[in-house]
Amino acid sequence: MGLQVNTIGACTLVDVMTNSYTGVTSAVLKFKNIETNAVYSQNITYSGSPLRAHVQVSTLDLPSENGPYEVSLEESNSEVARRALLIHCDIDCCLTKLTNEIIDCHCDCPRCSTALARAQKVFLLLDSALSTVELTNTTQGQFNSGYYLDIAEKYKKAKSICDNSCGCDC
């Protein structure tokens, strides 16, 4: 199975499933925010045969509820697996707002063109970042810090485009 990491529950939880890599019964999950280098750690316990763990971590416990993360699994003080994770509900909310602006436009005016251009940029940046997450997580046994930086840069740029006018509650 390996280490599997996904967001669930409208980005309120990170779902983690993994097998023990070395046969130990406990491990440490570390969530490192790529932008700030802040780390949240959680101990996990394996059970069953084969030894497995399934945990859910609240995004409220993480250094930031959204953003790019490097998730690592340590057994006996040694890293045995690493995955990229991009929590992007803030960007999804931005895309929803921009899409609603476009739908509300009843003409071919500059305001509509601006909203469409912004939505396209945000969508392409997010889609590209998610493709890099997938590439990173399917490159077995290798770690390329350039992939993590690429994810962070694309997320940061998408967020900067959104920051002036977006959010689920506006």
Furnish the topology, listing elements before pairings:
Layout: E1 4-8, E2 13-19, E3 26-33, E4 39-45, E5 52-58, E6 67-75, E7 78-87, H1 89-104, H2 110-138, H3 145-162
Antiparallel strand pairs: 1-2, 2-5, 3-4, 3-6, 6-7
Q: Could you explain the architecture of this structure?
A:
The protein is an alpha+beta fold and 170 residues long. It folds into two domains: 4-87, Immunoglobulins (Immunoglobulin-like); 89-162. It is 37% helix and 31% strand. The chain contains three helices and seven strands, in the order βββββββααα. A hairpin with a 4-residue loop joins β1 (4-8) and β2 (13-19). α1 (89-104) runs antiparallel to α2 (110-138), α1 runs parallel beside α3 and α2 packs antiparallel against α3 (145-162). The N and C termini lie far apart (41 Å). Residues 166-170 have low confidence and may be disordered.
Key terms:
170 residues; alpha+beta; Immunoglobulin-like; 2 domains; four-stranded antiparallel beta sheet; three-stranded antiparallel beta sheet; disordered C terminus
Q: What's the CATH H-level superfamily name of the largest domain?
A: Immunoglobulins
**Largest pleated sheet:** 4 strands, antiparallel
Count of helical regions: 3
Strand arrangement in the largest pleated sheet: 4-3-6-7
Distance between the termini: 41 Å
Shape: elongated
Q: Which architecture of the largest domain per CATH? A: Sandwich
Approximate helicity band:
25-40%
Mean pLDDT: 90
* CATH domain fold name of the largest domain: Immunoglobulin-like
Strand content: 25-35%
